[in-house]
Amino acid sequence: MPPLLSSAETSALLSLLPHEDREFEAVASDFDAAFEAKDRFKACCAIVLLLEDKTLLETPQRLALWYVLWHAFKSSQLADNPFVSVALDAAAADGAPPAERCLLLQLLQGGGLAGVARLTLGTFAASAEGLPRAPPPDAAALRRRYAPRPPASLETASSFKRAAISRLLPDEPEGPLGGGAAGGGGGAPGAPEPERRRREALLRGVVGSLTFAGFEPAWQRPRPPVLTPAPEELRWLAPPTGQELLWDSTAGDDPGRLAVVRELVAKALKGPLLPAQQQQVLLHLESDPKLVHSLRLGPEQLPALVENTPVVAYEVLHALARSRSIAAYYEVLASMQMSLHSMEVVNRLSSAVDLPPEFVHRYITNCIASCEGIQDKYLQNRLVRLVCVFLQSLIRKRAISIRDLLHEVQAFCINYSRIREAAGLFRLLKLLE
Questions:
Q1: How far, in Å, CA of 354 to CA of 359, rounded?
Q2: SS3 120
Q3: I need a labelling partner for 306 at 20 to 30 A (CA). Which of 90, 237, 344, 398 fits?
Q4: Are strands 214-215 and 165-166 parallel, antiparallel or unpaired?
Q5: Residue 281: count of CB within 10 angstroms of its CB
Q6: What is the pLDDT of residues 360-392, one digit of tens each?
Q7: Smallest Cα–Cα separation from 12: which of 67, 69, 36?
Q8: What SS3 state is found at 214?
Q9: How far apart are CA 237 and CA 78, in angstroms?
Q10: Which of 86, 90, 54, 56 is nearest to 73 (CA)?
Q11: pLDDT at 428 over 60
């Protein structure tokens, strides 16, 4: 069995044994500094072992240790102190020193720690020695005062506990419950008087133990009957296999608001919305972002929404950013035809959420390829300017790591170096290098 305290903890505890010129409060402060809260109970147990030997410590040292036992549990009530029974025995002992009994009575009778905290150990011991010797306290009265809650009686116990059979058996081969040769019962007429009284006392002790911690009778609960199923419930007794369960994502939603947003989004898939209609959709989505999951808007419908109403498309993607289905929407957005509206949506998303690097790189590659595939010079120059401004914005916001696309973007800038925005993007790349 491991020791109660380690060698270092034992040294710390012994260092608390003070001289008589130390104050009670100073000793308690040293105890708090030497032991953490989780180790103080072990230290108090060791203190009790030291106090059990009446000759090991001097009176000032014993006073200090008793004070520490009280100080360690000062935040709880006196009855909750685990060492109150030890103090009761010490206070009621016949040979207790006067100073020690005086201190314990003051603590037990509610005097508290404040009355002696600033006194030195020697001063308290000398003052207690000068007082007339007090008689031992009424230990029974003190125990009743600080006794724990009384156990439940037979009258308050349940019928199952009252009928329980004790797990304890008396060590009596021919006891009153065993039907021995001496009369077979506790009050047999033929038994001698001392033997009869002994058996009756044993019987009372055994009967008194047949109460709480024992083998209780089983609680027989009838099995509930099987209810006859209703005709519409018969199909669920053997549900058909291969059926897909559908989750109603509209449960709990406001049907009026949801219907309005669905109608406006359906219009946005066919053509641009009016500013008032756009604002109405945005207000509903901002007030309840979960509403976007009930719009039945698939990834294949995203390009139409981006071209017709990019503001609503951004709000939908922003609400879906933490869902599992966002990857499918990013896939469609990266592969759709490059346009001003799609760059607007991606640019706003880069400021609001952390876009996947593979999506950003794929979208930039798609933009570069779209510019190179246009035959109309005027439209090509316009799109190159838009792409260059878009890339500069992403680079300044640090939304992308341009190192993975450095050579491809530099080649793009060199091909269109006649355009001022392409030259500015090339200088920015050189600064980053």
A1: 11
A2: strand
A3: 398
A4: antiparallel
A5: 24
A6: 888 888 888 888 888 888 888 888 888 888 888
A7: 36
A8: strand
A9: 63
A10: 86
A11: yes
